[in-house]
Specification:
The protein has about 300 residues and is α+β, with helices and mostly antiparallel strands. The protein is built from eight helices and 14 strands. Helix content is about 30%, strand content about 30%. The strands form three sheets. It has a seven-stranded mixed beta sheet with strand order 3-4-5-9-8-7-6, with helices on both faces.
Length: about 300
């Protein structure tokens, strides 16, 4: 109901009477008044005038009703959206369930690192149930990073590129981190949870000098809600085409990693070489100094600085 009220207030120019809202939505004027009051308490700048209600400013809310059509769960603060999403996935929540939080007390990055979740960023996890073999699960990570990069490129004019295995960079600085977890039955994926942290209106540079944010790049704040809505739409299309689209080939066209000298760090060892390709399983193919090749399945990837000729 809150979503439908907001849509009408945003769509109809000028004040909208309680009677009009009541008739359009099939509820009492008292019910309309109660929903309006709750929306005002939640930060929506809705003016009550003698002629009706008028939307002055919708703010930057990430409440579930802002994303109709998606099973969104919004929290002011959680320990980790990944932890909450894992519980929901095991309890049978549907495909494309989204867990969003304003803040995380124990946000997680790759290789058990901490993801700093300061105010102004966009932090969420998507529960996915793709009907694909385990060997094709890498396509999901590539689809996520591509969706983020393309939204930044097309909607904000930011030259975002993807880095193996699943980060998004702008001019070598991280603007988005992605973490995925999978559970499977036999040889098929049961669910994949993808945690996404995008630096939007926060400033991550104090803790992460090698990071950047949309606000820092554009010199102004942007709507996290609009970014989230755009991502969900773009990513839903990618997921619908996951089985037929050559996601890996498209990822290669948007990456900074291939052709670079890189260092891959895992909990066990470190390997260095020139990144020459990514195979259909998502593994990075390195050309080592002795001329041999090595396939790397996972790890943190560090690019050597680009040298000017």
């Amino acid at each position: 109901m809150k979503s439908r009220i907001l849509q009408l207030l945003q769509k109809i120019p000028g004040p909208v009477s309680g009677e009009m809202l009541s008739e359009a939505l099939g509820v009492s004027r008292v019910s309309i008044w109660k929903h309006i009051r709750k929306l005002q308490e939640l930060g929506y700048n809705i003016a009550s005038t003698p002629r009706g209600y008028c939307m002055k400013d919708s703010g930057d809310a990430l409440f579930a009703w802002e994303f109709p059509g998606y099973p969104v769960h919004y929290f002011q603060e959680v320990d980790s959206t990944m932890s909450r999403a894992r519980q929901m996935a095991r309890e049978g929540c549907p495909h494309m369930t989204v867990v969003i939080a304003e803040r995380q007390s124990r946000g997680r990055g790759r290789l058990a690192r901490t993801w700093n979740s300061t105010d102004g960023g966009l932090y969420f996890t998507v529960v996915l149930r793709p009907r694909i073999p385990i060997m094709q699960s890498c396509r999901v990570n590539f689809a996520v990073s591509l969706a983020v990069a393309k939204i930044l490129q097309t909607s904000y004019g930011i030259p975002a590129r993807v880095k193996w295995p699943n980060d998004v960079l702008v001019e070598e600085k991280k603007i988005c981190g992605i973490l995925s977890e999978m559970e499977a039955e036999a040889d098929m994926v049961s669910f994949i949870n993808v945690g996404i942290g995008i630096n939007v209106n926060n400033d991550p540079t104090a803790d992460e000098p090698g990071a950047c944010s949309i606000k820092g790049l554009l010199g102004r704040e942007v709507s996290r809600r609009d970014l989230m809505a755009g991502f969900l739409e773009a990513f839903s299309i990618q997921m619908d085409r996951l089985a037929s689209e050559d996601i890996v080939a498209e990822w290669k066209r948007h990456t900074l990693t291939l052709g670079r000298q890189v260092r891959i760090v895992t909990v066990r060892d470190t390997v260095e070489g020139r990144a020459v390709d990514v195979d259909e399983t998502g593994a990075l193919i390195l050309e080592l100094a002795d001329g041999t090749s090595r396939k790397v399945v996972y790890g943190d990837c560090f690019h050597d600085p680009v040298r000017e000729c």
